[in-house]
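Example (one chain per record):
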Amino acid sequence: IDGLSASLLYEDGVFVRGATRGDGAVGEDITANLRTIKDIPEKLQGSGWPKSIEIRGEVYMTYAEFQALKERSAAVGGQNYVNPRNTAAGSLRQKDPSVTASRNLKFFAYAWGATTEDPAPTQYDAVQKFAEWGFAISPLMARAKSVEELIAQYHKIEELRSSLGYDIDGVVYKVDQL
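Predicted structure:
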């Protein structure tokens, strides 16, 4: 997903802080703005989550929301937004969270960082846990067992790319076994 990477810290299942990736070591605190995104739960659902876990994912804007924002802005002689990715990133840096909320941003969870215990024994199973805990995850994620399956999934995403409704950078492959 082509958006802005964000890290969400949950303690005892409650969202306590969110930040941008920043320079890889220090990110910008964007907690108030992340709280306005409906795909980010304030409290994790279900059970089995670690005492502390950092959920990583991508904040993005759909093409439809981007076009609607451009039209609203043009109607009042406002800013001409260039693309959904930069608009999503700028939306997360607003000083007023109500501005961020008006942009209807989305979030896909795809990984984790610091945690008191791994959420599952594999990458795929961990992301499925995120869905159980209330996060949106990419519907295109698949587990492949061969090079042929990897290539087939790539071609599937390539065919769907123009109809997804949001930008993607490409396909990411990960080794499943942690």
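Caption: Residues 147-160 form the longest helix (14 residues).
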